[in-house]
Amino acid sequence: MKKYLPALAVISAAILWSFDGVLRQNLYALPSFLIVALEHLIGAIIFFPLLLKGWKEVSALQQRGWISVLWISVCGGILGTFFYTKALSYVNYIDLSVVVLLQKFQPIFAIALAAIVLKEKIAIRFLVLAVAAIVGGYFVTFGNQPLNEWSDKTMIAALLSLLAAFSWGSSTVLGKHALNRLSFETVTSLRLTVTGAIMLFILISTGQAETISQVNIENWKYIFIIVLSTGSLALFIYYYGLNHLPASHVTLYELFWPLSAVTMDWYIYGRVMSLVQWLGAALLLGAILLLSYKNKIESNQ
Fold first, then answer.
1. Handedness of CA 124, 258, 99, 208 (dihedral sign)
2. Tally of domains in the chain
3. Are 78 and 195 in contact (CB under 8 A)?
């Protein structure tokens, strides 16, 4: 049973993230930056004992290790969560299914970033699969709507979703790098602490701390639920799985996120994707799976 725990951890985190979209849509009236700041500050406090426990690891961290931590803290913790939360605030203009499915562009961004930063050669196959995924993402977002019927709000929400995918995709690469130097418990607590500290500094220095007065009892309830389920807790579970699995396996198990989100979008909101959107989703997910599988084979050669 123990050998299946990492896979179950990633699947559990993926399912929790599908609930995350439903929870965040209840906070659409609050500034997205404030939501992200509060959830990370609360998470940092809860997981602070783990940071103290792993302080010897942190004190021995070298420059490259700190770069990885800062990257996942800023891009994964701040930017990715902000863009995702902001996209979900367009609840009346875009379906939860669309926002979540667009997150599967993460591997494309990760490989493209590796090519730019690490000067790795991009194969023709990657370009073909990337184009297929882009076409699939287009049909998922807009269905068979002609260009003149595109909604500005839908386009903005889709762009925000892609920006979140880029932020999280790059953070997965750097997160794996950080896990080579730190335990998953320390990575989780350190990322939450660094992100929380940066967010607190921004809130105070820009005078946005007063926006906390906009948070009512109902909002606080949802924020705490997010932290204790789909936010910090899901992140902790995910890093445990990522620490024990190859990236290609993680990509496969993460498919439970969009599949679960599509099911909930139908069950809770009664929203069902059109046939064209379903075909686009199949094209998008199929291209990503092939890309991850081929990338894994090449890395083992």
1. negative
2. 1
3. yes
